[in-house]
Write a structure and sequence with these properties.
Distance between the termini: 17 Å
Structural class: alpha+beta
Strand content: 15-25%
Shape: globular
Helix content: 25-40%
Amino acid sequence: MPILVRPMRPSDLPARERIMAAAFSAGLRPHIYPNGTTPADTIHMFTDTLSSMQSKTSLSDDQPGSRLFVAYDSEVPALPSDLEFPETWEKKTEVELTGKAREEEKRIVGLALWQLQPFVRKQEDVDKEKESADGDSSHAPSANAALLDGFAEALTAARDRWIGLEAYLYLKVLAIDPAYQRKGVGSLLLDEGLNIADRIGLQAYLEATEVGRPLYKRKGFEDRDYIDFDVAKYAPAAEGEDHRFMCMVRPAPAGGKKTVGGIKGANEEQGGNEVVVEKAE
């Protein structure tokens, strides 16, 4: 079962949704979609993710943006459902695989979504980013919008507390197909991102569930504090459930952050959000 890692492609969207739904079935997702998802939700998620991939992907180590990876089983054919898109989706023919590429596609078994911020920022730049994000945000029709907005606000507050204006690499999502959990897939996907952090000289940051914390500690992440967020305030059915998220930081490698792209930040002399951030190994 040789597991390999490659960048995520638009044709991976059905596999992405399958893995996210399965990996987080016992987490926040049932409260985000209390009545399940509909075809309209799927189309919304596909459209939103494709737009982000096309406009916000980081193509170099000095460009802020997303780095998206999938792990795949090189000996197992893709699931038929992972190759299908809704007939009514206007982007279907643009992203679906055909011919030999479709026949040779392999089963995707995990994914990691990273956010790269390679240089120190000024507060005014952060404020502009937040304003732009607020204008772009929208939720799937069946989603619990209040929960998503409240959670995103709590995540941002925690990240501001522990990272501030410093440069970083942020693990937004790590999700593994349940049939492949505890087989090293999560470790491979983590290494793909942490190699970027080490190459550039960045600290890495994430929010961990209790299930994921041991893996992250083995990779050098250190506990900071739990996120201050009451899920039951937005989803009463979550009362009594454990939805704690620990903020964790992996310090930058010896020597600290390198100068990237000729951009220097105000704090350099010191060495230095569909919102689903659960991480399932």
